[in-house]
Amino acid sequence: MPRITTKIGKGYRVTLPEAAREALGVRVGDYLTWIVEEGTVEVAKAAVIKCPHCGFEAPLEGFRLVRKPWRFRFYTVRRLQCPNCRKVFNYYSGKAPSGKVVEYVTKGRA
Fold this sequence. Notes:
The structure is a single chain. The chain is mainly beta. The protein has two domains: 10-45, no CATH class; 48-107, no CATH class. The protein has one helix spanning 18-24, and strands spanning 32-37, 40-45, 48-50, 57-59, 64-65, 70-72, 75-81, 88-95, 101-107. The protein is globular.
């Protein structure tokens, strides 16, 4: 695994080197998730959620959590509110028994 060194610039911005962009499969406009645990940092391409009402797109952190997440079968269900249209919808995410990662949204009740 190659070791890549970058410099932190003004505003604490970091340029993502080409090798890292290729490994993550990211392009301009994509979102990254930074996971910090016990002195190590993992970077992954963030899942972008699309509001089923207005089409607004953002990562999970861009939406307001309306209630505590709950389990439904192998899914974790989150009731989210869109910051653009203020409507509520459910976001299902989980790993199916086959090992496939599954994510989808459903409109909430009016």
